[in-house]
Amino acid sequence: MANNSSRRRHPWAGMAAGLLCLAGLASAGAQTPAVPAGTLVVGGRRATRLLINQVDPAYPPLAKVNFIEGGVDIEMLVSDQGRVAWAHVLQGNPILAAAALRSVRRWLYRPLVTAKGPAAFVTTVKLNFSLLGTKQGQRPLNPDRDLTRQVKPPAVLSRVVDPGCTSFVHMRVLVNDEGQVIDSRPLQGPPSQFEGARRAVEQWTFDAARWGSLHLPWYLDVDVPVADPTVRSGAADPNGS
């Protein structure tokens, strides 16, 4: 069973590194762009009153058989037309997080009406996944840890390498069971490069995580090389003009 409420804070797990210089790269669009300046922040209760179509997430079978439960905290930007422009995982098991993202991206809200007319807003929700009817004695003491030990994390299959990179953004990405990046979070690096790094890493291809012979969504930490714009402009024009 899955339900939702409001709240906030971070993801976990997985390790690897990849190489890509994002100078000159185009993308179909980042999953988690920056919040436009001046966007209103709406509390969970108020946002719930505006919600007119809530699609409940399906409980992933792999999570069920491994007794994975818990909450997924998601931040989302709702457009002035009431549609979810983007949604981003703040915290949650990766299998549950992927299911939660698929769900909330289909939610629909009444437009937030202000004195200046309909406005976009940012809010957070918490979706709770609970295995009802399972007796406590039937569950392992630490199912998340047990599953992590059995999972082979995702691996980078392809990326573009550019020797012009001068720094990097350390990111945590959520790779789905088809090897696609469906969410990303910058952890360290130049803040001015975060959006470019997000767009760049979405062009990488991955071998999805595996539990036995089955693919599943999982987190992975990667280093996304970035080019310093000031260095590149200087290299293009030695006189700096």
Describe the structure.
With 241 residues, the chain is of the alpha+beta class. The chain has one domain (2-236): TonB (TolA/TonB C-terminal domain), CATH 3.30.2420. The protein is 20% helix and 35% strand. Strands 1, 2, 4, 5 and 9 form a five-stranded mixed sheet that branches. Strands 10-15-16 form a three-stranded antiparallel sheet. β15 (209-211) and β16 (214-216) form a beta hairpin. It is flat, with a radius of gyration of 20 Å. The chain starts with a strand and ends in a 5-residue tail after the last helix.
Secondary-structure blueprint of this entry?
Layout: E1 2-5, E2 40-41, H1 44-50, E3 51-53, H2 61-65, E4 70-78, E5 84-91, H3 94-104, E6 108-109, E7 112-114, E8 117-119, E9 121-129, H4 143-150, E10 151-152, E11 155-158, E12 167-175, E13 181-188, H5 194-201, E14 205-207, E15 209-211, E16 214-216, E17 218-226, H6 229-236
Parallel strand pairs: 2-9
Antiparallel strand pairs: 1-9, 3-6, 4-5, 4-9, 7-8, 10-15, 11-14, 12-13, 12-17, 15-16
**What's the gyration radius in Å?**
20 Å
What best-fitting shape do the alpha-carbon axes yield?
flat
What CATH architecture do you see?
2-Layer Sandwich
Helical stretch count? Answer: 6
Q: CATH superfamily name?
A: TonB
Largest sheet: 5 strands, mixed
SSE arrangement, N to C: EEHEHEEHEEEEHEEEEHEEEEH
Using the coordinates above, name the CATH class: Alpha Beta
Gap from first CA to last CA: 62 Å
In helices, the fraction of residues equals: 10-25%
Would you identify the regions where 5 or more consecutive residues have pLDDT less than 50? 6-30, 232-238
CATH topology: TolA/TonB C-terminal domain
Number of strands: 17
How many structural units, i.e. domains? 1
Q: Calculate the mean pLDDT score and round it.
A: 83
Oligomerization status of the protein chains: single chain
Proportion of residues in extended strands: 25-35%
